[in-house]
Write a structure and sequence with these properties.
- The protein is an all-beta fold.
- The protein contains 2 helices and 56 strands.
- Strands 1, 2, 3, 4, 24, 34, 35, 36, 37, 38 and 39 form an 11-stranded antiparallel β-sheet that branches.
- The longest helix has 12 residues.
- It is elongated.
- The N terminus is likely disordered.
């Protein structure tokens, strides 16, 4: 047994990852864990089952019974000696399969289909047929007519004490037969089919209909009541576990065209049988392997086969307990349950489904996948025998020496990764063997671009993922047993680390002239000061804020603020470097290094007026000193203009003063005047728009202001302010 959590195992993770890189402090080491039924149910396997408590174990060996060539298998019953009786179509044959696997025709009935079977308390076999709706009694291989329902189909037979109950289709009725030729209709449903019957320990008959999906119950007095109205259209199967609790399968489906049969009616084999499915991931050679057991998280419809009736299905299996409302235990949006049968001594049942060929084990609170067959409709359950349709086949499950393989789901690590240690928790008793193999690739579905599977390594030495770097990973386990004891896998861990990804700068821009960010100090006032010039540069900056409150946008003359939004796919902390160059130059000059916040305000008065381009470089070097990644982004040209406009007098006449404002770099934004230091009055340019480097203005003054102190103030788009004084005309 290999246990997780040992110091040696932890060391292996670190050693294996360090072997491919000098530092692992950037992208964190992650561990892919599989340790539950839902985890393991995402993969595929051959001869391996997922238990309800979340382990992988070798499943019972499934051996196909040779000699069955019938188009359809409708029903099965197990005789006292272990033989299996099969009702088939389309030749009306009743087959007997001996415990040794020998197949022989027990009887041939006049109708084309033997659709229902049941052993009576007298030891005789009773068979329902279609079309024609007749029931036969077969004893010593000789059939004799027993009852005629006058319906088109007989879908189900069940004995309650000595009375035989018959469920029919077209019309949907329940009949009670007490002796040969002596019977009567107990109940006529409004649905076209009574699809399933079950006799419980109290002698009551449970019936499921197709059309409205009703569960009916007939008590010993013959009274009938509806015990459940399903949201589905058909009750496909009813059975009880070893504890007597009743399980009911309900389904709905849509198929192309129209059919008088229930949606759960088995489909015949196509004329030419499709080849076995050999697409299970990681199995290069499928010959002489046990039957496939496939686990998937969400059922998916199989591709349409020639002659099959392909459609969409949904199912649920409910558990009925006395005095309690029924509760769903298992649901599927893409599968249909064809049959239920008791399994084991803990009240569980097996559920046969299609169109993905899956056999499930259902318990009161848990479920798991027992096995998946290549044939896509699992319809027959009888003892240790499983029958399929679409391609008719019969399998017998048995103990003994066996081998199985499980292939994990494809793990998407997000991007190309290096793989580290591999650990598992499970049991490898004497006479058994557990081995692991690995492969990786860059495509979501394994193809020829993936690496080859690594050689199988015994579990005790499979300490590292033997696969090259890749985005996707799979592991595979092969288990063998001599039949005396079985190995098992409870938990698997695979370690990986993403290759360091470069940071991303999403936006980088300059705020308006004189706009700065500042944080509130602990005292609550917006205090900010300029620091002394950097020893390594000429620029004066705002003091590094120490509080963690969100910054506020303020104005400070002569300053510009660069702001950006950046992120790192690994979540690494980022630092930023800022550079600049005059527009038209190719030489970059460092502005500031090692910034941590996503903005920087600086004094531009040290720069001559003109256009400048700024470059931001984001780096994750702090977390990845040996594998750092950077990303740079340039700003659009930024105008630096610290020169105020010039105010020139143009003319003056009594009560009228004209002037112009001229700026070399920035458009004139605003002009105001004041007389004798009174409030400022805005004046509009002659052309009505303040949008040019030169603007002309005319001021009309009150005659009483003549000789007064006229003050004019002009502001450009860079928030440079010029002022001039004149005598009011």
């Amino acid at each position: 047994m290999r246990r997780l959590g040992a110091p040696r195992a932890i060391g292996l993770v670190l050693f294996a990852l360090a072997a491919g890189a000098h530092a692992v402090s950037g992208a964190a080491t992650k561990i892919w864990v599989s340790d539950s039924a839902s985890d393991f149910s995402l993969g595929e396997a051959r001869g391996v089952a997922v238990t309800m408590d979340g382990s992988l174990v070798l499943a019972r060996d499934a051996r196909r019974v040779e000699g069955i060539t019938e188009a359809t298998l409708f029903a099965a019953a197990r005789d006292r000696d272990g033989s299996i009786l099969l009702g088939t179509g389309d030749a009306g044959r009743l087959l007997r399969v001996s415990p040794a696997g020998k197949v022989e025709t027990m009887a041939t009935l006049p109708e084309k289909e033997v659709t229902a079977l049941a052993f009576g308390p007298d030891g005789a076999l009773y068979a329902g047929t279609a079309p024609g709706g007749k029931v036969y009694r077969i004893e010593n291989g000789k059939p004799s007519p027993y009852y005629e329902t006058r319906a088109q189909y007989v879908w189900a037979l069940a004995f309650s004490e000595k009375s035989l109950y018959v469920g029919t289709g077209l019309p949907g009725e329940i009949h009670r037969v007490t002796a040969s030729g002596q019977g009567a209709r107990v109940y006529a449903t409004t649905d076209p089919h009574v699809r399933s019957l079950y006799a419980d320990s109290q002698g009551r008959i449970w019936a499921g209909t197709s059309g409205s999906g009703l569960v009916l119950r007939v008590d010993k007095s013959g009274a009938v009541k509806t015990v459940y109205d399903s949201s589905k259209t058909e009750i496909t199967a009813i059975a009880a576990g070893s504890d007597g609790r009743v399980w009911v399968a309900a389904a709905s489906g849509e198929t192309p065209g129209t059919s008088p049969e229930p949606i759960s009616a088995p489909q015949p084999s196509p004329a030419s049988r499709p080849p076995k499915n050999t697409a299970a991931r990681g199995d290069e050679d499928q010959k002489d392997k046990p039957e496939v057991t496939v686990s998937v998280s969400t059922a998916r419809l199989a591709p349409g086969r020639p002659g099959s009736r392909q459609g969409t299905y949904s199912s649920e299996v409910l558990l009925f307990e006395e005095g309690e409302p029924p509760r769903p235990v298992w649901t599927s949006s893409e599968e249909i349950v064809f049959g239920l049968a008791p399994e084991g001594d803990k009240g569980a049942v097996l559920a046969a489904t299609g169109p993905n060929g899956k056999l499930y084990r259902l318990g009161p609170s848990l479920w798991s996948l027992e096995r998946t067959f290549d044939e896509k409709q699992v319809t027959i359950l009888a003892g240790n025998t499983v029958g399929t349709n679409s391609a008719s086949a019969l399998y017998r499950l048995s103990e003994g020496p066996r081998e199985g393989q499980y292939v994990s789901a494809v793990k998407d690590t997000g991007r190309t990764s290096r793989f580290g240690s591999f650990r598992f928790d499970g049991d490898v008793p004497a006479g058994t063997r557990v081995e692991f193999s690995f492969r990786s690739g860059e495509s979501g579905i394994p193809d020829t671009t993936w690496s080859a599977w690594s050689a199988f390594a015994p579990a005790e030495s499979a300490t590292a993922v033997a696969a090259p770097a890749g985005r996707y990973l799979q592991w595979k386990v092969r288990m063998t047993s001599d039949g005396a004891r079985l190995p098992g896998v409870r938990r698997v861990e695979a370690s990986y680390r993403n290759r360091n990804a470069a940071p991303v700068v999403e936006t980088f821009l300059a705020l308006g002239p004189s706009e700065v960010f500042a944080r509130s100090a602990s005292g609550g006032s917006n205090v900010f000061e300029t620091t002394v010039p950097d020893e390594k540069g000429i620029f004066t900056s705002l003091e590094e804020p120490k509080a963690e409150s969100p910054p506020r946008r303020l104005l400070r003359k002569g300053y510009r603020t660069l702001t950006w939004k950046a992120s790192d796919p690994d979540g690494d902390p980022l630092t930023y470097d800022l550079e600049f160059r005059p527009f038209g130059s190719t030489r970059w000059v460092l502005l500031k290094k090692g910034l941590r916040e996503a903005f920087y305000s600086f004094d531009t008065t040290a720069l001559p007026d003109g256009e400048y381009v700024f470059r931001l470089t984001a780096s994750d070097a702090e977390a990845n000193p040996e594998e750092k990644k950077t990303f740079s982004r340039d700003s659009a040209p930024v105008v630096i203009d610290n020169t105020p406009p010039v105010i020139r007098k143009l003319s003056s006449t009594p009560g009228v003063f004209e002037f112009e404002a001229v700026d070399a770099a920035s458009p004139i934004m605003e002009a105001e005047y004041s007389v004798d230091a009174k409030e400022w009055t805005r004046v509009e340019p002659k052309d009505g728009l303040s949008d040019s480097l030169t603007e002309s203005y005319q001021i009309r003054l009150d005659p009483k202001a003549r000789g007064g102190f006229l003050l004019i103030r002009v502001t450009d788009a860079s928030r440079n302010v010029a002022a001039a004084s004149f005598t009011a005309p």
